[in-house]
Specification:
By secondary structure, the chain is mainly α. It contains 25 helices and eight strands. The strands form three sheets. The protein has a three-stranded mixed beta sheet with strand order 1-3-2.
């Protein structure tokens, strides 16, 4: 007979609230928690957990799947119930339970990936490297087993540099799971000057948008319904989605292929990077004494990886001194051995980036742009729109088009003056500039303040004054700093690739396939270096612009 767990939570809540548990013997309580799934209902009750600590500890260790209780408490993102663990359940016990789970038949691949990336927290949850390795092997085993019985979903990303003359510099074919980017190699051969070769990362490959925001970062608006609400992920993880994976794969292919084609022209990307710091910055901005040591052509790939990473830190420290002091003091750099934090890299620009900063913005974001808001659907209109913003801009709609339950939202937007009714009763966006700013923030999570017109900047200033938006100054925006942290360390995210620390501390791969891994990682490092060049150049260009000087 199937058990009904509907009232279990209420049962234990009542016996705690009225102190009934004090009259329950250990023998009786042991019978109460006989069921293997009962602890989910017991653990939210602190007093009960404190009294029957040993019995609950033993019950936790009895079933391997109880490890998911630990993961829900410490790692899994979501609105999990507050649970309490008995003091008798030690740090060692927690790891023993997790090892049992890893070795069990019940081990779920999604939970295993969470375990692999756990960042140990003293006195809470600590995982040894041996346990992490055990998890990694189990993940590999389960993944191979899965693909024996399933072909998975094929995704193709192709980058081609065509020797045939094209009608335009780049042609993109396909969409979704199959994307092919074709570039006119003749155009590249005809434009071999270093500024153009660098600009190809902007105008051909789309590494950044026209506000010079890195376009490869993960964005919440790009996450699908399953990725947002149904997938299991750590609250400490960098939130990746299919769109991020697509852009990552494509951008890596672009720089690998581009580097190979430039090599065929006897041009190294490293030489372009060196030119930017040693010649371009002096010529354009009168910045001299920038020092950079690019990896030599004959260095091993491992040496190249280590060199480029240390130079990345070095050029950022040099730039910080330019921002702070207007010049580079190499003796000062030599004294400092602390690694630079990407989020702390300063900008020479005041109020460079704009972010959302209020509940009002969150509410407007939901009403205007969310596909979960009821306002984006009207029964009489056959075409389906993904947001209320798209609907109101493309259709003639009235208040009476909405059911009664949606009137509260419509009236609130009218009351806040975001929409109005025209003389014919049609709904129109009223604060167009404000809503356009909100749309940019929804799509990109950050705005480059000085890329907007003076008229729009005045609107942003008002929104900042009202506490709806906020301004910050840094070389990298928050999403961009997160992107670099994801690749290079685990300071922010437990699923970070940690590439910088691996190479600096000598824990990089050293198996038979390590050379190919080093080559691939080196291309990633070059990609990140190019992105830093674009960001530094943008910073200096804004500072040198008439618009900024007037502002």
């Amino acid at each position: 007979m199937e058990k009904n767990y509907q009232y279990y939570d209420d049962f234990f809540e009542v016996i705690e609230k009225y102190n009934v548990f004090e009259r329950i013997s250990e023998k009786v309580f042991q019978k109460l928690i006989k069921d293997r799934y009962i602890l989910h209902h017991v653990l939210p009750n602190k007093k009960i957990v404190n009294k029957f600590g040993n019995l609950i500890r033993n019950k936790l260790l009895e079933y391997p799947e109880n490890a998911t209780i630990l993961l829900d408490k410490y790692e899994i993102e979501g609105e999990n119930k507050q649970i309490y663990l008995p003091k008798e359940f030690t740090i060692t016990d927690k790891e023993i339970l997790i090892i049992k789970y890893i070795n069990s038949k019940e081990a779920n691949l999604n939970y295993l990936r969470i375990i692999e990336n756990i960042q140990s927290k003293k006195n809470e949850l600590e995982i040894s490297d041996k346990t992490r390795l055990l998890t990694k092997k189990k993940i590999k085993e389960q993944t191979e087993k899965f693909f024996q019985n399933s072909d998975g979903i094929e995704m193709k990303r192709t980058v081609v540099f065509s020797e045939k003359r094209l009608e335009q510099e780049v042609i993109i074919e396909g969409s979704g799971r199959d994307i092919k980017c074709i570039y006119d190699f003749n155009w590249i051969k005809e434009n071999q000057d270093y500024p153009t070769l660098l600009n190809n990362f902007i105008y051909l490959f789309g590494y950044v948008d026209m506000q010079m925001r890195i376009g490869l970062t993960n964005k919440k608006c790009n996450l699908g319904l399953f990725e947002r609400f149904l997938s299991i992920s750590s609250k400490n993880a960098y939130k990746k989605g299919t769109t991020f994976d697509t852009l990552e794969m494509l951008s890596n292919l672009q720089i690998i292929s581009y580097s190979e084609r430039l090599n065929s022209l006897d041009i190294r990307l490293e030489s372009i990077i060196e030119w930017f710091f040693k010649e371009y910055l002096f010529k354009e901005f009168n910045i001299n004494d920038y020092r950079i040591s690019i990896p030599s052509k004959n260095s091993s790939t491992l040496e190249k990886c280590r060199t480029i990473l240390s130079e990345m830190d070095h050029i950022l420290k040099e730039y910080q001194l330019i921002v702070e002091d207007g010049q580079i003091d190499h003796e000062l750099i030599e004294i400092s051995s602390n690694p630079i934090q990407f989020k702390d890299i300063k900008s020479i620009i005041k109020n460079k980036y704009i972010y959302a900063n209020s509940e009002e913005y969150k509410l407007m974001e939901f009403y205007f742009f969310s596909d979960q808001c009821i306002l984006h659907y009207i029964k009489r209109i056959e075409k389906r729109y993904s947001s209320f913003f798209d609907l109101i801009n493309n259709e003639k709609i009235k208040k009476e088009d909405y059911a009664t339950y949606a009137e509260v939202e419509i009236n609130y937007l009218i009351e806040k003056d975001y929409i109005i009714e025209d003389e014919y009763g049609y709904l129109k966006i009223n604060k167009k500039k404000v809503v356009n700013i909100f749309k940019d923030l929804y799509k990109n999570e950050v705005i480059s303040y000085w890329k907007y017109s003076e008229e729009y900047r005045k609107v942003m200033d008002e929104l900042i004054s009202d506490g709806i938006l906020c301004a910050e100054s840094s070389l990298l925006s928050r999403p961009e700093a997160d992107y670099f942290n994801y690749y290079l360390n685990k300071a922010e995210f437990n699923n970070g690739l940690d590439l910088r620390n691996r190479y600096i501390h000598g824990t990089q791969p050293s198996n038979d396939s390590s050379e190919e891994i080093h080559k691939y990682n080196y291309m990633i490092f070059l990609k990140l270096f190019i992105l830093l060049i674009i960001k530094i150049n943008d910073d200096l260009c804004i500072n040198d612009s008439e618009q900024y000087k007037r502002g």
